Amino acid sequence: MNERIAIVGAGLIGRAWAIVFARAGCQVRLYDADPHALATCLQLLLENISDLAHHGLIDETPVEVLARITPVPTLAEAVDGAVLVQENIRETVEAKRAIFAELDQMAAPGTILASSTSWLMASEFSEGLPGRHRIMVGHPVNPPYLVPLVEIAPASWTSTEAVQRAHELYSRAGQSPVLLKKEITGFLLNRIQGAVLNEALNLYADGYASVQDLDKVLKDGLGLRWSFMGPFETIDLNAPKGVIDYAQRYGPTYRSVAQAQLPNEWDPALLARVEAERRTELSAPQLAERARWRDNRLMALVAHKRQQAGNDS
Ligand SMILES: NC(=O)c1ccc[n+]([C@@H]2O[C@H](COP(=O)([O-])OP(=O)(O)OC[C@H]3O[C@@H](n4cnc5c(N)ncnc54)[C@H](O)[C@@H]3O)[C@@H](O)[C@H]2O)c1
Question: Is the pTM of this model over 0.90?
Fold first, then answer.
């Protein structure tokens, strides 16, 4: 692919999107309102792209990929000729409303305008804009060059044509888009993550297990399977005759558990206990080093999944 892509905001997520599209062959223009962010982004990008090369996750040299990313000093230069503008500025509804009003005025009529927002709905920041039919959410998972899911969440007024084009662009760039059929706060991933997190907090609060053991339930249990299949395929395979068979065996118990599951209040005292348990496992100064360990584990897993790609679907 060789289309021009505009990335607005050169923070953590904007830079990661730049890598996704440059790796796929696109010409990427990257804009940030903060000159310091623009001045430092190429060095940060080179470090991330070099890590990918180290794990065999790019086919070119890091410098060849980086050469397709151009930081530009104005929004107009970024947007000019772009088929897609991917917005990644700070997460407030006022900031998103202001930037989308500007982008809608500036961008050519056929340009798709997508926001990386984690929680806001497209209708909250595109209402009233003349080009609202080409505005949507394209929510990535950090970092999108390793975790391919993109949640496309259109407003009721976003056109099917714009959604299809965004779906096709993200797919060709190597991402794995999913489409929300209607708007909801938190989209799909953060809602499912929230359900798991709330239940883990409840089990901890009620004294059923330690923080360490609750983490193990995912990393040595559910998570192994979840890296290649979801909850529906899991239950389809966990009873000999599929989903209905599974539901007949275990459904009544799941239902009574669900009825007893309370919402969690995210009580500060409870979170302080969780934090204290985590700090006995990992001291605060070790957090950054452990985050790098996580990224390396993730890259090794992505490399493994690529090798297995033929067996994956
Ligand atoms: N961090 C994550 O894990 C994550 C994951 C998915 C989605 N997101 C979403 O991505 C977006 C960006 O998050 P981030 O973590 O990259 O934040 P960040 O703070 O790292 O980067 C934001 C960048 O936007 C720039 N900026 C602010 N206002 C601007 C404007 N008006 N015009 C141009 N640039 C402007 C800032 O200078 C900064 O460089 C947010 O909407 C966030 O919810 C974040």
Answer: yes
For ligand 1, whether the C-beta of 89 sits within 6 Å is yes
The residue whose CA is least distant from atom 39 of ligand 1 is 11
Measure 94 CA to ligand 1 centroid, in angstroms: 14
Please write down the long-range contacts of 300-305, taking CB distance under 8 Å and 24 or more positions apart: 300/55, 301/227, 302/55, 302/57, 302/146, 303/55, 303/56, 303/57, 305/227, 305/228
Query: What's the 14 CA to ligand 1 centre distance in angstroms?
Result: 7
Same domain, 27 and 115: yes
Number of domains observed in the structure of the chain: 2
Strand arrangement of the beta sheet that strand 135-140 belongs to: 69-72, 27-31, 4-8, 84-87, 112-115, 135-140, 149-154, 176-179
CA of 253 to the centre of ligand 1 (A): 43
pLDDT at residue 313, as a whole number = 60
Cβ atoms of residues 12 and 32 within 8 Å: no
pLDDT 10s digits, 261-297: 888 899 999 999 999 999 999 999 999 999 999 999 9
| Residues near 130 by beta carbon (within 8 Å), at least 6 away in sequence | 104
For residue 87, which atom of ligand 1 is closest to its CA?
Answer: 11
Measured in Å, residue 289 CA sits from the centre of ligand 1 at 23
In this structure, are 15 and 130 located in the same domain?
A: yes
Q: Tell whether 19 is covered by a domain.
A: yes
**Whether 120 and 71 share a structural domain:** yes
Residues 95-151 pLDDT 10s: 999 999 999 999 999 999 999 999 999 999 999 999 999 999 999 999 999 999 999
**Residues of the domain holding 31:** 4-179
Among 88, 116, 125, the mutation site with the greatest number of ligand 1 atoms within 8 A of its Cβ is: 88
Q: Do 121 and 153 belong together in one domain?
A: yes
Residue 62: cis peptide before it, omega within 30 degrees of 0: no
Centre of ligand 1 from the C-alpha of residue 36, in Å: 14
Q: Does 88 sit in the ligand 1 pocket, CB within 6 Å?
A: yes
